[in-house]
Design goal:
binds zinc ion, single chain, alpha+beta, two-stranded antiparallel ribbon, 197 residues, Arc Repressor Mutant, subunit A, 3-stranded antiparallel β-sheet
Length: 197
């Protein structure tokens, strides 16, 4: 059930934040944007979210300047703005909380500092260099709780390989790569061999 609306009149900053990101699906969409999902169809296939709900949530996130809509009219792409990227600590903390309390087989994803490979602790610090790691320096990879059987969509398959946050996932072989992060993505091109589960 969607939450009742009406936080806008609250003076509490948490309530105002929840007005933007507190509805069901919204943080999962933002999380996927960190993973590099950009296109409507890819959000749908990875989240199994109803299209009408996704359309509504994307519209709200764009209106709130959390996402920006780029690409073409017929092939829009949604990217996090700086305001959206600032939500990373929220996403990360909620993920760590879920890993601790609701992941009996262990974390589904592991987070490492891409610069030195150090694991990132629950507070977001690299255990090797002690720095607070910004999302564009974080590399994710499957953890012990990851189940390839459940990740059969193109996003899930792409994320079976290590991937740096905020870099677009290369999901369509025919896609014209006119976006940022092209060089690193090109370097990771072999992971697109989808046949190997
Ligand atoms: Zn480090």
């Amino acid at each position: 059930m969607p939450m009742n609306r009406g936080y806008a009149d609250q003076h509490c900053s948490l309530a105002r934040s929840l007005e933007v990101v507190g509805e069901r699906w919204t943080l999962l969409i933002v999380r996927d944007a960190f993973y590099g999902v950009r296109r409507f169809a890819d959000f749908v296939s990875h989240l199994s979210i109803p299209r009408a709900v996704l359309s509504d949530r994307l519209g709200r996130l764009v209106a709130a300047c959390v996402l920006t809509r780029a690409g073409t009219e017929s092939r829009p792409e949604y990217e996090l703005t700086d305001k959206g990227v600032a939500l990373w600590p929220l996403i990360y903390s909620a993920t760590m909380w879920g890993d601790e309390h609701y992941a009996p087989r262990g974390p589904r994803r592991l987070f490492r500092h891409a610069e030195d490979g150090g694991p990132i602790d629950k507070l977001g610090r690299c255990e090797t260099c002690s720095e607070l790691v910004p999302p564009d320096q974080i590399e994710i990879s499957p953890g012990p709780g990851h189940s390839p059987k459940l990740d059969k969509d193109s996003v899930g398959i792409a994320l079976r390989e290590p991937h740096r946050l905020l870099e677009p996932l290369d999901l369509s072989p025919s896609r014209n790569t006119a976006t940022t992060g092209q060089s690193r993505r090109a370097a990771k091109a072999p992971r697109r061999a989808r046949a190997a589960p």
